Amino acid sequence: MKRNDKFIRLLMVLFLSIGTFFTYANPIKNAALTVIENNKIKVTVDEKTGSFTVLEKTTNHLWEADPWVKAAGLLTIKNQGKLENLNISSSKKIDVEQIGNDKVKLSFVNPAFENGEVAKGVSINTELRLKDGILEVEVMSVEKGEYNVTELRYPTRAFSLETDVDKGAAVIPQKQGVICPSYISPMNGGSFCMWDDATYYRKTSGKLPLFNNGIGLTMPWWGTHTEKTAVVGIVDVSARPDMFYNINNNGQYLFNSKGVMSPYKRIAFLDPVWKINRENERKMISYEFIPNGNHVDMAKAYRKEAIKDGYFVSLKDKAKRDPNVNKLQGAIYMGVYGGYPHYVEMPGMAFTFKELQDIIKTTHDELGVDNAFFHAWGVFSNFVPNCWPINENLGGVKGLKKAVDLTKKYGYLYSSYHAYSATLENDPEFNTDLFARDKEGKLRNTGSRWANIDQNKQLGLAQKSLHKEIAALELEADITDISFATFPDEDNTGLFNLAKYIDSLNLVNGTEHGQQQFIPYFDMFEGLTYLPNPNLVQFSHRAPLFNLVYHDAIAIFGKIQDPDNQISINGDFRVKSLRNILFGMGTTIFFSPYEFDGMKEMIRIANQVVSPVNRETFFAELTNHEYISDDFKLQRSNFSSGTEVIVNLGPVKQATKEGEMIPGYGYKVTFSDGRVAQGSFNLSYNASPTKKI
Amino acid sequence: MKRNDKFIRLLMVLFLSIGTFFTYANPIKNAALTVIENNKIKVTVDEKTGSFTVLEKTTNHLWEADPWVKAAGLLTIKNQGKLENLNISSSKKIDVEQIGNDKVKLSFVNPAFENGEVAKGVSINTELRLKDGILEVEVMSVEKGEYNVTELRYPTRAFSLETDVDKGAAVIPQKQGVICPSYISPMNGGSFCMWDDATYYRKTSGKLPLFNNGIGLTMPWWGTHTEKTAVVGIVDVSARPDMFYNINNNGQYLFNSKGVMSPYKRIAFLDPVWKINRENERKMISYEFIPNGNHVDMAKAYRKEAIKDGYFVSLKDKAKRDPNVNKLQGAIYMGVYGGYPHYVEMPGMAFTFKELQDIIKTTHDELGVDNAFFHAWGVFSNFVPNCWPINENLGGVKGLKKAVDLTKKYGYLYSSYHAYSATLENDPEFNTDLFARDKEGKLRNTGSRWANIDQNKQLGLAQKSLHKEIAALELEADITDISFATFPDEDNTGLFNLAKYIDSLNLVNGTEHGQQQFIPYFDMFEGLTYLPNPNLVQFSHRAPLFNLVYHDAIAIFGKIQDPDNQISINGDFRVKSLRNILFGMGTTIFFSPYEFDGMKEMIRIANQVVSPVNRETFFAELTNHEYISDDFKLQRSNFSSGTEVIVNLGPVKQATKEGEMIPGYGYKVTFSDGRVAQGSFNLSYNASPTKKI
Fold first, then answer.
1. Which chain A residue has its CA at the smallest distance from B593's CA?
2. Whole-angstrom Cα distance, residue A600 to residue A221?
3. Alpha-carbon torsion B82, B86, B92, B93, what sign?
């Protein structure tokens, strides 16, 4: 039996190869195919299905159409309360029309539901356009007929990778970024079993939104690459699709309700999901083909776009305007949490300004920290968004100014905690006057206390008191939390007005998480790293995609909800410190005053291991990042400053290709002047000899 | 304004107090109330709503009815595709009838939808019965009329805690167990901000199933306690409700769709959710009232029930029958992962039996490990569920027997990896012949590769080869994975048949995760700890609830998907080791052969710190567990062996109430003979002096 199977398989491979040979060896358009091509790529449209393949000529790699059912796209229609995805290649009429040498127009008219019923009056019009090494794919229009048409996944399952056959990755800028390898063998240590299982479960597929602070994408691009070639899709700046991912999944999720096994292979693909009812956008994705490319090249392709779109303003330019930006170099970001903003003068957690002074002094004198950015949470008498006056019970302006003066004396930065986007239910003065409302007057964000204030009212809240605080304390820095953690899909004039106002103060400006749209106005983002919830990291590897685009435009520190001192799925202090030097990020320590003593050793180590690297790479472009061991634990990065960082994120010592051994949780940094720092983190225990009492 | 508010509040409190005084000071039944009572508790039913209060007389604590809307219960009806929860206290007719001194019969006839429409023909009949310190609450019948009635939450929002007013906890046996404090002040370190926010978001409410391996409950009980009194609800052994939780949430989730703020207070409560269409069960929960009780007393109340229900067979008795059980004492559970069961002879991960011998030898000779249980993943030539023959390419029976003999020589245990519940899609011999099917012949578990085989076919699979392997290797232990990780809501005869067969072999028997129903047949559960997905731990503290019930009946080791060597939300090696000694669990190290070198230091430390405690407490009851610092990081446990363990799970040194200082990540163990072991885990780094090259 087995032998017969094998023989039939071989035969099929042969037939398919011959088919491919005839199809692609013949440059002349035949009856079933429409071809546009240039010297870099050749796009072949199957006139029967409207799906297309792309031959990347430099490496002769053929990106096939949907390997499961050759669908060109999937149209989502809400039908009797149920969402159904119609394969548009099932349309009663498909027109493929070549226009000149570089363009193909497609129309899909009357697609069919799975039961065969036709969605009459529904049609989809798209275009494929060649521009040098780029293929533009655009949804020109969708006629909805009488149907509730919500979304179009187009192109679907294009540029896919076959699991364990193609040795590449799907590259996704979720938060700081991840790559999802398309091969699950060979190694991933003991965790491998979770990876392999995940690929057959639903969690390896799903939909991610753009520009949110939860699981979303921080940049509007994604891509796939094999060992020899890469393709990156960059979404038009006006558009706002979701991204559908299927990572080494065999599509079993399509068959569970039917009670049968999926007949498909495991593949990895990433689809744009266009929102049909979102108007005033160009539903276009531009695929750039990069021979021999990988995640670094994809990020660099987008970097050009980001510069063009005005998101990129360099830290160097920012430091020219405000030399205090230089103080961020090598700084440890110290969040001192006094229970505020959640509560004012919270018992057991609030600090007096004298205590804050002591913490700052200890950080300098005892711990020897060279650079720090102190962020004090809990200095006001009122709840957010009323960040004023400075709390007299804790020491008043005089006491807090002493703390601020200390930071200046040591060359540190200081900001109090500010937020203008939130009113809290437990505030005794709580009311909904500032809430965003919909047209009917209903409150819009009742379910999110940190985003309930109308964005157009936030500038006014900042203007009420921020200037008073700056004057009273003679501040050099400001952190305004939350408002800029997302880029809502609406008119964001209110947010930009707040950002511009903060920027106009010419302080060292920081904000939480951050989004690329706000980079021109800020110097640091707290937390464009990874959240403690797992998401894609369960079957992927973290990659510094955001930093490959923006490292030299914005300083990145850890997320306050998952600081470097906390143990989480993202690592403990050892792993997070290694990732900091690899990605070119600063250390984040977030603690309540009573915890300070427990932070000291970590602060000391961060100052010795992380800060020197961050100091040298601060203004530099992150030029390269690579995985250099089979289990992806050993990684290397390079900065335009000439700095090279090698880290081992796992417990096992491993050798680089050059034969250099890096110990478990170890690192080797080569600075621009040739100095080398190397070492490793160790776990040990002190035990008193067991004694009898 | 503020003063007026306060005055009105005070006035309201006064009125309410007077009302309460009149209501509960008057023991005679009045027109609106029906009362049953004994010397321990007094149950007062409001005849208008059918909801009830319980006065626990010893501490004079009044457990109020639903503090939000005084609902007696919530009935879920699927109406035009939408689920709606009907407050049964809105019923057109509510009958409350006292029967004798100890029983009240209630009926709720024709409840109303939110729009006022009446669900005609629907009625709910319940009983409240007093039995000494216990209140039995039983749903006697539900008439569904013409409606699609799916669930009944009853009683609802009873025994609730008011957040930050009641200083207690909701106690939930999710996995090993958690407590969710009902007060969020004072301290929880920097993490406090996540806690506080979570209480206003949807994630602090939800529904948990019983007996699954994901987020479910491992035992059918839960409870709430204040500072002075506790109540635990134990579900009837025949029943299978879900549990609804609302942890310090103000019910905002009920109002988001309306665009208004919730008018309710933050409360914590736990409700049984009865499945109306589940027949042949007694829908009964017995509430036991425990003056001065906490989570330990609740677990101990259930322990009595578990013994009665036959789930409890002591490890002592198991060791009498098979003295090799003694070898589990203090054992480090070593999972050696060769890529199997996922792949056979997986490149880069498979080990030869010579390599396995070397690992075992090194563990003994170099690392000095006293007790170990080796679990080798990858010794067969076939994929699961065909765990036979032993792979000749890797060394065959002869080679593997040498490894087994070594474990015997050192006093260790050994098992190969076995599973009979799974066929894998990537197995070249894959087919669906063994799959569970529904009545129509559809495959039932297509979405879960580890549970796709019909439970009634699993015994046959074990019987095909397990005896051959035992004979060939002269085995003393067996681990059979997966089958017993859940207790499906169906006829489980097939699983019991497999369990009984394995038990009949009289080996040291282990299985993955485990469920209480299988304790009589096994000696160890791998992973009745916590999964790496966060669930309730985001706003709760881990508590050894399962171990408080079953520690002396089943040995518990870490979960292979989150072993002690791996960094996750459950901690890194430091935190997990401390939790192991606190809860009385063994160390778990799971690794691929190439990672062994990176495991050595952890194995060595585990043998010195964890094993001695596990050895002494192995057969002992876990008698006590308490949180002894304001931030819950400092914890103490006691075992019936006389052993006392104090650990500090946080980085900050803290003092016990007796003034003893425990360093960050530190411990103090007092053994039964008075010997004291104390120490702490430290993080350090070695660095070569920075040099220029």
1. A189
2. 40
3. positive
CB-based contacts of B571, cutoff 8 Å, min separation 6: A567, B579, B649
**How are beta strands B93-99 and B103-109 bridged, if at all?**
antiparallel
Q: Which of A2, A189, A349 lies closest to B591 in CB terms?
A: A189
Region A175-200: mean pLDDT is: 87
d(CA A155, CA A138): 9
Q: Which is nearest to B584 in space by CA: B627, B553, B541, B628?
A: B553
- b/e map of A187-210 (b: 16 or more CB within 10 Å)? bbbbbbbebbbbbbbebbbbebbb
Task: Provide the shortest C-alpha distance from residue A106 to chain B (in Å).
Answer: 36
Q: Choose the mutation target among B566, B683, B690, B692 for the interface with A, i.e. most A CBs under 10 Å.
A: B683
Express each pLDDT in A376-422 by its tens digit: 999 999 999 999 999 999 999 999 999 999 999 999 999 999 999 99
As given in the structure block, the two tokens for residue B120 are: 């005609």
- Chain A and chain B share a number of CB contacts under 8 A equal to 289
Q: How many CB atoms lie within 10 A of CB B500?
A: 12
- Which residue in the set A260, A442, A683 is minimally distant from B446, CB to CB? A260
Residue B429's SS3 state is coil
Whole-model pTM over 0.90: yes
| pLDDT-based confidence at residue B117 (cuts at 50, 70, 90) | very high
**Sign for the pseudo-dihedral over CA of B38, B39, B41, B44:** positive
A83 exposure class (CB count in 10 Å sphere: 0-12, 13-18, 19+):
exposed
For residue A586, give how far its alpha carbon lies from the nearest alpha carbon of chain B (Å). Answer: 18
CA A181 remoteness from chain centre:
17
Q: For A343-457, where are the alpha helices, taking DSSP H only?
A: 353-365, 396-409
Among A8, A78, A261, the strongest candidate for a mutation testing the B interface, having the largest count of B CBs within 10 A, is A261
**Chain A CB contacts of B662 below 8 Å:** none
Strand partners, A654: A662
Helix (H, G, I), strand (E, B) or coil at A128: strand
Find the residue in A nearest to B630 (Cα): A348
- Contacts of residue B678 in chain A, CB cutoff 8 Å? 687-688
Q: State the nearest Cα–Cα gap between A308 and chain B, in angstroms.
A: 38
**Cβ neighbours of residue B181 under 8 Å, at least 6 residues apart?**
B167, B168, B169, B540, B541, B632
| Distance in angstroms (rounded) separating the CA atoms of residues A470 and A161 | 54
Residues A506-546: tens digit of each pLDDT: 999 999 999 999 999 999 999 999 987 767 888 899 999 99
Q: How confident is the model at residue B535 (pLDDT cuts 50, 70, 90)?
A: confident
